[in-house]
Design goal:
Layout lengths: L1 H7 L7 E7 L4 E7 L2 E5 L6 H8 L4 E5 L5 H4 L1 H7 L4 E7 L9 H12 L3 E5 L4 E4 L2 E7 L17 E8 L2 E7 L1
Parallel strand pairs: 3-4, 4-5, 5-6
Antiparallel strand pairs: 1-2, 2-3, 7-8, 8-9, 9-10
Length: 172
């Protein structure tokens, strides 16, 4: 019984790790900072959900850089696998761009699962245990509707303190 119980409890995480996964035409990144998990894009396969499930990880924040299916198709696998996603960060105006219908459905799946949806733009900042994530693009109030979603893809800069030095990760 003890082995069964221990097999479903997440292992405690100290420090900061960054893992880049190859998940089809796009990428997915997993940043684990003192037990807080941020995921940047999901790719177009079950690779991300398998990675998270094997490590018994839930997602505190999922950043979807833009709503093309090569960045969002893994969302359905997350939901199907029962991996909780607490918060989703989208670029401002994400749903108003030329996007894939499957990507819009992915956002609806996340909403239906109870995830908080946040639209972000330059100057928005989000706290992590050892640092912060700052949104660099798009600019609030300057997003035009109907553009290719890549034009207003969310650019994010993570500034994390990693002993012995500070690490800066920027993604777009």
């Amino acid at each position: 019984l003890a082995i069964v119980v221990l097999s479903v409890i997440p292992w405690p995480q100290a420090g900061t790790t960054y893992v880049q996964l190859s998940v089809g035409n796009a990428d997915a990144a997993v940043v684990q900072d003192e037990g807080t998990v941020w995921v940047i894009d999901t790719g177009e396969s079950a690779t991300l959900s398998t990675y998270l499930h094997q490590r018994r990880m839930s997602v505190d924040t999922l950043v979807l850089s833009h709503l093309h299916s090569d960045h969002t198709d893994g969302v359905a696998d997350l939901v199907r696998s029962g991996i909780p996603v607490r918060r989703v960060i989208l670029p401002e105006g994400a749903e108003d761009q030329a996007v894939d219908a499957e990507a819009l459905e992915a956002v609806r799946l996340l909403e239906a699962s109870g995830a908080e949806i946040i639209h972000a733009g330059r100057g928005d900042r989000f706290s992590l245990p050892s640092g912060e994530a700052a949104v660099l693009w798009p600019v609030h109030g300057a997003v035009r509707c109907g553009q290719d979603a890549n034009v207003y893809s969310l650019a994010l800069c993570l500034r994390l303190k990693v002993t012995p030095a500070e690490t800066v990760l920027c993604s777009s």
